[in-house]
Amino acid sequence: MSNTPMAANPLTRAVLEIDEYTSGLGWDQPARLFALVDTARLRSQEPALAAQLGLEDGSGTGGLTPIEQDEIPAGKPLDEFLATIAWPDAVAGCALTVERLMLPPSAEAQVPEDLDEAGLATWVADHPERQEVRMTVAVLRDGARDSALRLRAKDAPTEVLTGSELVPGLAQALSATFEE
User: Fold this and answer.
1) Which distant-in-sequence residues (6+ apart) come within 8 Å of 60 by Cβ?
2) pTM of the predicted model, to two decimals?
3) Contact between residue 14 and residue 36 where contact means Cβ atoms under 8 Å apart
4) 66 near 17, Cβ under 8 Å?
């Protein structure tokens, strides 16, 4: 992808590639799940699929190729959906992109007590300091993880934050999809 730094490790490149892809779809999108497969292995074991994905030229042999999966069922809580996933051995990792509202840490002290989950969601949605964020989180079978965060208010490739511990809960949930 054009905005993905070549010096980054393969997992970071995959996260940024997915972020760039989902950014091109616009905001207010459903969550999207991706399998991450070793590009060289994909070329050798599935040449027709590699050709379909434009990977037949042989460049970038050490990378990961994201392959978008079927749509995540609407109305099903994300944690429940993730608990139903099991990946075949050919999948080296997975990634998820999801949009959420977030508040700055300073807002934590303002949260009213005795709110149920729906009440908290409404309170956050109405908070004047809320920010819309798109999170792309990826994990590998070996435990490696990386994330990209993009704020709607700063929707530019140069404003994307990356790091392995930006969304630890979601990374853990994705890692659990590889546990037997």
Assistant:
1) 39
2) 0.84
3) yes
4) yes
